[in-house]
Amino acid sequence: MPESPSPNSQPNLSTTTETTALSWRKDLLITLVCTIAIALLLVHYDNFDAAAYPDQELAKKSVFEVPRVNSRVLHGSDKIGEGQLLGPEDIVYDPKLGVIYTSCVDGWIKRVRVNDSMVEDWVNTGGRPLGLALGHSGEIYVADAYKIGEGQLLGPEDIVYDPKLGVIYTSCVDGWIKRVRVNDSMVEDWVNTGGRPLGLALGHSGEIYVADAYKVS
Predict the structure, then answer these.
(1) Across the chain, which distance is largest between two alpha carbons, in Å?
(2) Buried (b) or exposed (e) across 87-97, using 16+ Cβ within 10 A?
């Protein structure tokens, strides 16, 4: 007759482990199936037609209107040389002297002291000074639409000085950006933009940035 297991005998470890593993896999499978089912219920795409926008809404006045003149733009600023500078075109600041130079429509290059706003008649070119540039030693280079370059520069607009190369770049009305050597005033055809170069700026590594009225977007 087979012997009955003793009350103190240990259960089969292998059978217990297999039962636990099957139960864990079953629970995982049920959880996974439920998660997918819920996701499918939540993610449901419906095709719909956009509602027509009422035409009258487009004709309504906008809620916010931008003022043509912002009275707060110059809030807190100081006006220098008001009434003493006729049609100023360009401006350059000399930090060593603490003065501002500006070119005016009447041919004058005016000098304005920053500390007291005193305006001085510095020099009159007898032409139409436009662009100004400050040289390495405080000299002022002037792009005069009527006088500069002795016929080699046609209607120069702006001017910029490169102290590393010792050259001046100026933009002309015929599309040329000319380069002028300071030491001997030699004028070179540097590059033609094919448009109307106006403003010039010198970059950190000597590159020249150009604002062209016809080509820059």
Answers:
(1) 136
(2) ebbbebebeee
Structure tokens that stand for 88 in this block = 């100023």
Q: Could you tell me the CA-to-CA distances from 97 to 93, 130, 166 in Å, in that order?
A: 9, 22, 22
| Per-residue H/E/C for the chain | CCCCCCCCCCCCHHHHHHHHHHHHHHHHHHHHHHHHHHHHHHCCCCCCCCCCCCHHHHHCCCCCCCCCCCCCCCCCCCCCCCCCCCCCCCEEEECCCCEEEEECCCCEEEEEECCCCCEEEEEECCCCEEEEEECCCCCEEEEECCCHHHHCCCCCCCEEEECCCCEEEEECCCCEEEEEECCCCCEEEEEECCCCEEEEEECCCCCEEEEECCCCC
Give 160-209 pLDDT, tens digit per residue.
999 899 998 998 888 899 998 888 888 898 999 888 888 899 998 889 99
| Average per-residue pLDDT for the chain | 78
Give ∠ CA 122-126-132 in degrees, rounded to 5: 55
Residue-wise pLDDT for 13-50, tens only, equals 455 555 665 666 777 778 877 777 776 666 555 555 65
d(CA 167, CA 181): 5
